[in-house]
Each structure stands twice: as C-alpha cells, then as structure tokens.
Amino acid sequence: MNSNFPGRDAYGTEKQMVSTKVLVHSRTVVEKDGYVSTGVLSHVEGEMIEIEMSEFKSFDLGDPVSLTIYSPVGIHRLQSTVIGKADGSLAVIFPPRSLIGLEEKREMPRIEVYHDGSFKRVVDKKGEALLQEAIDEAEVDAYIIDTELTVRNISYSGVGFQVMGASMLQPDDRVEATIKIGFELSCTLEIIRKESDGDQFFYGARFHNLDELQQRALRAFLLREQVAAYYKKKQEKAKPRSF
User: Could you tell me which residue ranges the PilZ domain spans (predicted)?
Assistant: First the structure.
C-alpha cells in the first residue's frame, strides 16, 4: 500500500512562476568571511540547495554564507547557512522568497517518517462517531476519545497517516490532532484523501491554522529530515554494487 498522498497546496488562478529546477547546473559562488569558492548548484528542493565544489572542506556546519547563483533566468544573490556536508558538496538553506524579482514555484518535499500521534473524535454511547451537526443540534450523550495514528509522511502543508481498525474519518472532516515529531505538534487536520488496505486505513490531511511558532518548528524539523534523507540516499548510490 502506498501511503504517499498528493498535496493540494495551490488553488485558484496560478500566476506564471519560474520553477526552481531552472537553477540546477548553475555556476554558484559561495563566500564566507572574505573567503570565496565556486561550485555548481546540483540539487534544489524545498528549502535545501546542494552545491558541488572541490573546496567543501573550507566550510563548516552553521557557517553563514553569501551565494551568487548565475542562472539562465538571471543572477541571484542571497544569504544562507551551511546545513550539511558530504564528500564534494555542501548543503545550504534556500531561504523563502529568495529569487528577487521572480515568482517562485517550489516543490515542498514530502518526507517519509514513522512517528506516533493521536487525534480526538466524538462518539456516542455505542462508540459510533458523531457528526458535528448532531452534536450542535441535539442533546446526545457524547464522549471525546483519543485515537492513535502513525504518521508515514509529512510536508510543510500536511501529513499522510495510518489508523488501525474501523474507518471513522471521511474526506472534508476536520480533527484535532497531536503529532510527536521530536516535539508535540498540536494541530487541526482536514482530511483530503482516504485509502484502505485490509484492517488499516490511510489518510492524507492538510494542516490548518498553524501559528508562527509551530510553522518555524515544523520547517526546522523538515529541513533536518530532508538533509539527512538526501545524504543517506547519496551514500547508498555511492556504494559499489555486489554481483
């Protein structure tokens, strides 16, 4: 069962935007404290850029750097920070709204994870889920219970998660959830998609109304996970194949 859920991040009329993929293969100058080195931008996704360069050892994790990207759509200068290193490359933050003068079209990565969480639902005496309309308009004995979930993928816009047991959520439902991803993210989720596989159900859901602090914490978590996953994949590709 594939638990990747396509997101619905953009609605309505979309402006003409330039995909950040156009930056790949661009010559890129990296500068820190007066030291300058040149490399080639080899990968861009979400809020991470990888730059292949022979002098990567001259930079350390956490170093603030200035980037000058000579791309087919112009020269772009931005301030960034080194967040990853591997043999022959650096990973740096791709700041939001960094392509000055251009509309940006970014693909926010969906990160495969395995984290616990729960959501609250309202049930009657028989344990059957109650619609909000029934709760608001009728006098019924209702109970709030926590249902466990397992997060299987997450992005800046939402999550994909699985629940064991009977189906209780439908598309367009909203639930209050807590996701444990190194910190507890309490959030409202809108169900977008539902799939079943035997005795378990998979849901795709969108975050609603995260505050600024939650957005920053989620962005930091995603960035760490993205860098770790990307370099793990690079290491696996670099391993010699056995025949």
Answer: 150-223
**Please, what is the Cα angle at 93 between 87 and 97, to 5 degrees?**
150
Assign residue 233 a region (left: φ > 0; alpha: ψ between -120 and 50; beta: otherwise): alpha
What's the CATH code, domain 111-214?
A: 2.40.10.220
* Predicted model pTM: 0.72
Other C-beta atoms lying within 10 Å of the C-beta of residue 119: 26
Q: Please tell me the distance from the alpha carbon of residue 156 to that of residue 179, in angstroms, as a whole number.
A: 13
How far is Cα 203 from Cα 193, in angstroms, rounded to an integer?
A: 5
Give tens-digit pLDDT for 101-119.
566 666 678 889 999 999 8
Give domain 18-105's CATH architecture.
Beta Barrel (2.40)
